[in-house]
Specification:
two-stranded parallel sheet, single chain, elongated, three-stranded antiparallel sheet, 44% helix, alpha+beta, 160 residues
Length: 160
Amino acid sequence: MRHQKAGRKLNRNSSHRVALFRNLAKSLLLSENGRIVTTIPKAKELAGYLDSLITTAKKAPTLTVPEGVRFTKRRDKNGQELPLKEGERMATPEELAAYARRNHLRRLLLRDLHDPKLVNKLFEEIAPKYADRPGGYTRVLKLAERRRGDGTQLAVVELV
């Protein structure tokens, strides 16, 4: 019995499944019209995967760093600390915490997607678009036509 075994295996081992969802997510997020066609089980699993990626990107604090704010101390070749330049100041603890949180979330998404440009797109374009939406960023629509060759039912996955 499959008690408490969430998710579909899709006849793949775990590393193949991870790569499959990574590639499907990249295809969807980089497509011009924001939609892809795939099989129904893949589409349903992809929706949850994408929702978690977008939610992670939404959690990042909006960070506007004023001119002249430094997050690290300046050092010379020997490792000696250098004084701050005119007009520079060290970041406040709140700014440092927001910067660290944002970088942490960015690295989590990089771990999953392996594409820095796509992570930037998630943070700068996609997450702000869904800032007021409490979830459900994807829509799965079943297509009437079936795939030639094996007759599998197809679905369209799109960003809402």
